[in-house]
Amino acid sequence: MIRLIMFDLGDTLIRDQTPFPNVIEALNTISQFKTSEGEQLKLAIVSDFGDHETANTPSKIEALEAEFFDVLRTTGLEPFFQPFDSKVTISARAGASKPDRRVFEAAANRSGMDVDLSECLFVTENAQHLLAARNFGIAILAFGNNVTDLPSFSAWLDAPMRIAELIDPTNMRNHELAISLVLKTEKNIETFHCLNRTETTFRGQATSLVQLDNPELGEMRGAFIEMPVDVSVRCNHGAIDYVVIEQPSAVDIDDAVSYVQHLVRQESQHRFRAKSERDDTSSKPMSRDAEFSRAVGFRNDIRMFIDQAPEHAKRSRSNVFCPRISRTS
Predict the structure, then answer these.
(1) Where do the DSSP E strands lie in the chain?
(2) pLDDT tens digits, residue range 268-326?
(3) Chain centroid to CA 269
(4) Neighbour-count burial of 192, counting CB atoms closer than 10 A to its CB (0-12 exposed, 13-18 middle, 19+ buried)
(5) Which one, 17, 78, 148, 258, has the greatest CB density within 10 A?
(6) Rounded to whole angstroms, how far apart are CA atoms 92 and 51?
(7) pLDDT (average), residues 163-173
(8) pTM of the shown model
(9) Which helix (H) or strand (E) holds 270?
């Protein structure tokens, strides 16, 4: 059972002080994973940083750790490896450099988990370090195209799926999170929920932005809405290699159009009643707070969705709305 993931830093998570593409998103996803026993998976860094032979005093080690902390902070990785004392182990602190066994044992001890090396996973681009770690009983996963004949991934967008398979092939939630990351990044589809799976294929539903191009909507024509879509995801050796998205049916689209029209009429009625009450001189004028309260129901159903709408939608329209549409049986 894998309980602790040890990541290398240089040329694995970052290069030239810059994270590889999708590293932040991948770590955010992996940090939500659970072990096969339902525990929170813990993330850690093991890095050759500082000369462990010359950094032989507490003050020198602490200075190197402060420097390393700045690297994590400036690269945006710091939130995933806090608290530092239990999630980061540099060679100066361990008194040895990778792939010395003492480095991995120091990281395991600092984690505070009472974890054995056989319960750890090590991720790096260095094949020699991976082979040594495997000899210590550590599960291994290689990053990059340079490593052959070992479990590997070449893009960080694929890492969560590979790691989900290594942690617990039966944990559906971990797989849903990994698939959701790929769908969101590559297909602009959110929140995948798996309904069934075979050995290589996951089938379920997700949420997609669908544009309503119906002239009956008038000024709302071209608005984007969130609708459920059926999704099939095929995996090959732990990596997603094929995605099929079934677009909403004509009936689903018609239902969505009707719902948007209903919401627009509802808003018009709110505005009409508000105006009538303001014009009624025999009653107290409606306050701004009261007007706002009347619109709350409408705003909860139709909300501005510009930030997450497709780029072409942002450029073409300033009123991109997104009511949530539920599929009818």
Answers:
(1) 4-7, 14-15, 18-19, 42-47, 88-90, 120-124, 139-143, 152-153, 189-197, 201-211, 224-236, 239-246
(2) 777 767 667 666 655 555 554 444 444 444 444 444 333 344 443 433 333 344 444 44
(3) 40
(4) buried
(5) 78
(6) 6
(7) 93
(8) 0.78
(9) helix 250-279
